[in-house]
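Reviewer 2 asked us to include a model.

Predict the structure of this chain.
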Amino acid sequence: MILASRVRVNGIVVNQLGYKVHPDDEVMVDDQHIGKADKITYVINKPKNVISSASDDRGRITVVDLIESPERVYPIGRLDYDSSGLLLLSNDGDLTNMIIHPRFHIPKVYEVTIDGNVADEVLQKMAQGIMVDDYMSAPCNIERIKDNKKTSLLKMTLYEGHNRQIRKMFASVGFKVVKLHRIAEANITLGHLRSGEYRQLKPYEIKKLKEYLNGGNR
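Predicted model (structure tokens):
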């Protein structure tokens, strides 16, 4: 469209690819005004076997496929293909950067079902930090919810997000994760959202989330 002289900025035809526009510039394409996209953020209860991406070259279902939105949104961070639970999606770049930047240490809370019964001393060791691949995991919180004959249900709060970290942590101490479900991130919770359901965050929730990310109410 640019090379075809269909784009004007402040009334002047622009033929240069990569031309930078400023927030107050008026951009027209074929004499139609191009407005700014409204900032919008969703929380979804991602089902298992859904990709945490905007697209997939293998044709698998993505979280973006599950959301009907007037604006294009993108997942904030990731949740494994074989895991379920809370995932945020947004077109708000500032919010996205605050959540994914390591320096903010955003807590993420998971319900973890383990094949077998894990001893307290093992959980204490994991909570203090253990070697996973080539890095030492950061301290985390682990709470035992209940034990059955064959499984343990735990609640874990992590402040970092390495690839498949929880599964690798338990594998390193000889246990397999059979179910992983995220229930909270920062101060946002799943609430009553069922698998595959989503909702748009309200303006006051966005305000409180940004206040939280900036160090308030932690």
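The first helix runs from residue 93 to 100. The chain has a mean pLDDT of 93. We have added this to the supplementary material.
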